[in-house]
Amino acid sequence: MSDVIEAAVAALKERLGEGFDGSVKFVIEGEGAVVVDAAGVRAADEEADVTLTADADTFQAMLSGDLNPTAAFMSGRLRVDGDMGQAMKLGALLA
């Protein structure tokens, strides 16, 4: 597992706690994927209700609070595939 994925798992666990009602996959380009669901946060490449894709810098900025997820999406830095409602719910938790 890459250092970027390990850092993303740790940051998401800190921000989201034990889990998320639904399932979200974060695809960090060139690094791998992280899944968040009711079971918690883990490095995995599994099916999810919604998939969020961006580069490592964009995810780091969102997780640190320097970049609002909605702004990342609107500027084209974050791609969303799947259930937009789940994406918005997660975005509210990360903002």
From TrEMBL:
InterPro entries: HSDL2 (IPR051935), SCP2_sterol-bd_dom (IPR003033), SCP2_sterol-bd_dom_sf (IPR036527). SUPFAM superfamilies: SCP-like. Gene3D superfamilies: SCP2 sterol-binding domain. Pfam families: SCP2. Residues 19-94 form the SCP2 domain. Keywords: NADP, Oxidoreductase. One of its GO terms (molecular function) is oxidoreductase activity. Belongs to the short-chain dehydrogenases/reductases (SDR) family. This is SCP-2 sterol transfer family protein. It comes from Meinhardsimonia xiamenensis. The lineage of its organism: Bacteria, Pseudomonadati, Pseudomonadota, Alphaproteobacteria, Rhodobacterales.
